[in-house]
Amino acid sequence: MSATILVADDDAAIRTVLNQALSRAGYEVRVTSNASTLWRWVAAGEGNLVVTDVVMPDENAFDLLPRIKKARPDLPVVVMSAQNTFMTAIKASEKGAYDYLPKPFDLTELIAIIGRALAEPKKVQKAPEEDNQDGMPLVGRSAAMQEVYRVLARMMQTDLTLMITGESGTGKELVARALHDYGKRRKGPFVAINMAAIPRDLIESELFGHEKGAFTGAQARSSGRFEQAEGGTLFLDEIGDMPMDAQTRLLRVLQQGEYMTVGGRTPIRTNVRIVAATNKDLKQSIQQGLFREDLYYRLNVVPLRLPPLRDRREDIPDLVRHFALVAEREGLGSKRFDISALEAMKAYDWPGNVRELENLVRRLVALYPQDIITREIVDAEIHPPQSSPVQAERAPEKEGQLSIRQGIEQAVGKYFASFGHDLPPPGLYDRVLVEVEHPLIMAALAATGGNQIRAADLLGMNRNTLRKKIRDLGISVYRDARNA
């Protein structure tokens, strides 16, 4: 006997399409436009699977779902919705839905989901607890974000390891935190660690902790991030920057479920969920010998790619309103963005992604006295003038040529963005000066064929000062006879 599918949707066109498609697939179909009829069928023991919209004329499906799961816990329910937000997907999962599909959906995919649901062995599920989650941790209704929401909704009640990839500023840590806050480990701690922000020789101690006297300066026992995250989620950001020896130890933890502190002798069992993230191409890193292939497959159990903002431009108005509201709550002021300003933002490519957009909105709200932010204001911030009063005194660059200031701003911006929500290690000022000074002197010497007098003049410094810096920085000078 064929399975019976109960369909509930107040849109007559959708009911017709589903009736025809499911009938052609070999199912018996019963359709209704209201939740009360659907509940009467379910309570009477009819139907093998339910396909229902969220918004019904007489009752919301999320209010009906707990009753369905309590009365018939083995009845699969597929939820559809045109309210394509992160919370819609999460509520569908929390209320016990088998799967969630944003409208408009693909009929072939729906039929495949129904087939999987009916083929799975029946399992009794507990009625979900009521949980008011009014926050919106992820913003956007674009098609690119819908797949992100669906993956997250499916992962909420599992402990599977997740690998989040995406450009800097796309919100990888935000997604990891949402996975924790709305998942089965929400009562445990969420611990984040940025691999790129920790000195290489301290990563193992940071991850696994150390015993007193394990190394010079270890005055007392210190707990590592694995111990701090016990029972919760450990987020390993910028995993592609992890040194090879630390990768080996992490792989052992994932394989055996236990670790040892630095200087320790007793294995410690661990109970954490691992979520990793990177903006690098780890497969390329594997080919270059910089990342272990076996660790990659251990971490990449469930891959999740976050789209760059330029691939979800339709989400920009919602994001702008969200960031403006957050800024207002923080006391930065209340601002409204007109349509032309939003269009200017949608036309921009956002190399810094959502983080860059958030920073722009906060800057506009804080710095401009106008109540309405216009396109002219946005353009002035997104496309600033190429020169300033200070720059006007300098030698002018050719048209289209990147200025020194712009180049440094881009490099420093990318460096800060690589740390996500963390900060770079202390001592940044001196490190930047040293790292800029060395290539600058090298470039000056190369341009003058190794002539130190001309290089000193080019750099605007005393020749003896230049010679001292060449010596201190260990720069080898080769004279070019043509420029002597």
TrEMBL record:
<feature type="domain" description="Response regulatory">
    <location>
        <begin position="4"/>
        <end position="118"/>
    </location>
</feature>
<dbReference type="GO" id="GO:0005524">
    <property type="term" value="F:ATP binding"/>
</dbReference>
<keyword id="KW-0805">Transcription regulation</keyword>
<keyword id="KW-0010">Activator</keyword>
<dbReference type="InterPro" id="IPR003593">
    <property type="entry name" value="AAA+_ATPase"/>
</dbReference>
<keyword id="KW-0547">Nucleotide-binding</keyword>
<dbReference type="GO" id="GO:0043565">
    <property type="term" value="F:sequence-specific DNA binding"/>
</dbReference>
<dbReference type="Pfam" id="PF00072">
    <property type="entry name" value="Response_reg"/>
</dbReference>
<dbReference type="InterPro" id="IPR025943">
    <property type="entry name" value="Sigma_54_int_dom_ATP-bd_2"/>
</dbReference>
<keyword id="KW-0238">DNA-binding</keyword>
<keyword id="KW-0963">Cytoplasm</keyword>
<dbReference type="InterPro" id="IPR027417">
    <property type="entry name" value="P-loop_NTPase"/>
</dbReference>
<dbReference type="Pfam" id="PF00158">
    <property type="entry name" value="Sigma54_activat"/>
</dbReference>
<dbReference type="InterPro" id="IPR011006">
    <property type="entry name" value="CheY-like_superfamily"/>
</dbReference>
<dbReference type="InterPro" id="IPR002078">
    <property type="entry name" value="Sigma_54_int"/>
</dbReference>
<comment type="function">
    <text>Member of the two-component regulatory system NtrB/NtrC, which controls expression of the nitrogen-regulated (ntr) genes in response to nitrogen limitation. Phosphorylated NtrC binds directly to DNA and stimulates the formation of open promoter-sigma54-RNA polymerase complexes.</text>
</comment>
<dbReference type="GO" id="GO:0005737">
    <property type="term" value="C:cytoplasm"/>
</dbReference>
<dbReference type="Pfam" id="PF25601">
    <property type="entry name" value="AAA_lid_14"/>
</dbReference>
<dbReference type="GO" id="GO:0006355">
    <property type="term" value="P:regulation of DNA-templated transcription"/>
</dbReference>
<dbReference type="InterPro" id="IPR009057">
    <property type="entry name" value="Homeodomain-like_sf"/>
</dbReference>
<feature type="domain" description="Sigma-54 factor interaction">
    <location>
        <begin position="138"/>
        <end position="366"/>
    </location>
</feature>
<dbReference type="GO" id="GO:0006808">
    <property type="term" value="P:regulation of nitrogen utilization"/>
</dbReference>
<dbReference type="InterPro" id="IPR025662">
    <property type="entry name" value="Sigma_54_int_dom_ATP-bd_1"/>
</dbReference>
<dbReference type="InterPro" id="IPR058031">
    <property type="entry name" value="AAA_lid_NorR"/>
</dbReference>
<dbReference type="Pfam" id="PF02954">
    <property type="entry name" value="HTH_8"/>
</dbReference>
<feature type="modified residue" description="4-aspartylphosphate">
    <location>
        <position position="53"/>
    </location>
</feature>
<keyword id="KW-0535">Nitrogen fixation</keyword>
<keyword id="KW-0902">Two-component regulatory system</keyword>
<dbReference type="InterPro" id="IPR010114">
    <property type="entry name" value="Transcript_reg_NtrC"/>
</dbReference>
<dbReference type="InterPro" id="IPR002197">
    <property type="entry name" value="HTH_Fis"/>
</dbReference>
<protein>
    <recommendedName>
        <fullName>DNA-binding transcriptional regulator NtrC</fullName>
    </recommendedName>
</protein>
<keyword id="KW-0067">ATP-binding</keyword>
<dbReference type="GO" id="GO:0000156">
    <property type="term" value="F:phosphorelay response regulator activity"/>
</dbReference>
<dbReference type="InterPro" id="IPR025944">
    <property type="entry name" value="Sigma_54_int_dom_CS"/>
</dbReference>
<keyword id="KW-0597">Phosphoprotein</keyword>
<keyword id="KW-0804">Transcription</keyword>
<keyword id="KW-0678">Repressor</keyword>
<dbReference type="InterPro" id="IPR001789">
    <property type="entry name" value="Sig_transdc_resp-reg_receiver"/>
</dbReference>
